Amino acid sequence: MGFQPVKFYQTGTFTIGNRLLEPDERSVQSGQARSNSINSGHRACQGCGEALGARYAIDAAMAESKGQLIAANATGCLEVFSTPYPESSWQLPWIHSLFGNAPAVATGIAAAMKVKGKTEVRVVAQGGDGGTTDIGFGCLSGMFERNDDVLYLCYDNQAYMNTGVQRSSATPPAARTATTMPVGPNPGNAFGQGKNVPEIAMAHGIPYVATATVADLRDLEYKVRRAMKMHGARYIQIFVPCPLGWGTASSDTIRMARLAKESGMFPVFEAEHGEVVGVSKIRHKIPVEEYLQPQKRFAHLFGTNGHPEMVTRMQAIADRNIRKYGLLDEEGC
Amino acid sequence: MLKQTEGSKAVAEAIALCRPEVICAYPISPQTHIVEALGEMVKAGNLTPCEFINVESEFAAMSVAIGASAAGARSYTATASQGLLFMVEAVYNAAGLGLPIVMTVANRAIGAPINIWNDHSDSLSQRDSGWMQLFAETNQEAVDLHIQAFRLAEELSMPIMVCMDGFILTHAFERIDIPEQNQVDSYLPPFDPRQVLDPAEPVSIGAMVGPEAFMEVKYLAHAKQMQAIERIPVLAAEFKQIFGRDSGGLIRTYCSEDAETMVIAMGSVLGTIKDTVDEMRAEGHKIGVLGIISYRPFPLEQVRAALSSCKRFVVLEKSLAVGMGGIVATDVRMAVTGSGLKGYTAIAGLGGRPITRATLHKLFLQAEQELLPPVTFVDLDWEAVNKQLTREQQTRRSGPAAENMLHDKGLISAKFG
Fold first, then answer.
1. Which residues constitute the domain of residue B404?
2. Are residues B221 and B337 in the same domain?
3. Is residue B251 part of a domain?
4. CA spacing 20 to 30 A to B23: which of A193, A291, B77, B110?
């Protein structure tokens, strides 16, 4: 099932499900056998990056586990828009307990599967950046440290969107949120704060850590499938733009994700046992302005009363990422 | 089999006999010996199949239990005091989701001031969480209640705390009859979950519920506890058939038939109370005892019936509703509404303050003569309290209250004086 006749208009594109590929190289999402784990009819906003990321990630995990998957979900947008009682978009066994305990709930499920000898059943936990990097961080670190057999998916939209766009420890500097307003001499979120959870995850020495964006869904699928081939604690942070919280056009979600990666603001890489083993190189390097300017959350940086010095500091962050992860191919290399 | 053993060890053996599948543990006194013993059994391969998980907090302990229980595993943890408070959000969640987790609470005071000794403030703070709460009077009863708790929890698909007094029971060595595996197996069938996370039959658990159904879901928890009122005596009777002893049930009375004064309490202090009552009976006082085993659900009818022929009652409780008085006393008064009975509340034993026979004797005599105020703080050091209150009136920066009072009592003078 799922083999479609070749349609040549897709030649040379990066379109998901490029049917010119061999069947075993095709994306999960392009196949008719995909599980549609998060089914249509949910209530995510138009252009929601999280809904897109979750769809690809969970369907890929379902494909890799042959449908033997259980999901634990933190409180947040994904939970709220997918399960307004009495409806549910989830086509796999799914539990929501609390905001801050999804990793621990997943640990419990994995323990239950182990004790019952159901080794084929795999477990994912998922949450937004608030549920992951802030309130769920203790449980996340505990799950990592014990190397519990759980894949944790963090959908990172860089603020608490479900409660109305408040700052989280994943919010970038200078960004406007409801709790870091663009007022005063240092508008927006502070510089020099925040948590790099992928690196903290790596410091736990867990088998697999990766970042991905919804601009490269093939890469996201690859990383989820790769993670699912391993056992122990695994972490993927998926960059999912939020049109509502960022003040971007809902048609620009994927473009925003691409610009974040191409500017160096969001390094895309994968690591095994604490060592980086691969990075997604920047294909067309852009200055951070190109990424920041279309977003209303950074609007106060630009224009006559703008803050070019803050843009410079943002560029420095991007440059550091590029150096640190080797995101640019150097001449002659 | 009769054994001379520690309460915690005995409880651990009872839990093991119940064939738990997932145990999560976070250390907090005075429950540590229970999970330590279970951890050793799992590690040694004597309790199998079972996953023993050392979690990073009590919040995680309850959360792991939630995940495991929702995935169909018989799940157990133990906690006390600050640990119970640290997991509160997950405690309510487990009940709201209807997951039959069994948890031992080794009852201990809540800080500040930090205090590791026994009172009932911790589990009573979770009165309205939706968990059932059974209080053990002895270590034998603690053992037996855990076995009954798994049966009741899984029948109703609701969680249960088995409460046993920290140190007084958990750390006491005494003769305890540890049941045989075949007895427990014939009493407690394998866990057949009402809801389970299973890829073969996917369900969503924990959806957002708005005003259209929230009250109904909450009412269900109440309905389950009302069912428990019916089931608890039945399960205790079945327990007696297999194990040969009275254990559990809703309430227990002692010398109550002709009693004019009834003393009501929960947990191990009932032993001291019964000894005091024996003394007073020998002196001709018509005094009896009502022990409450099932605090939640609270057996209103049974309590009312047990108090129907007395003239007055004293609720002696190791807890305090600050700004009001008693916590258990409020429930007892609810039970006897309209009876015209005189009722007294005695707050005793907070933070491990010893409750002696001499003190109780005096207290009960005063109650008998109806000389007690509505709320009595048993053995409170009024001098120390008044001194601190005066200090606070006189000096704005009077300093930390607890340290002042210890200083007044000369307990830390060498260090700070």
1. 391-416
2. no
3. no
4. B110
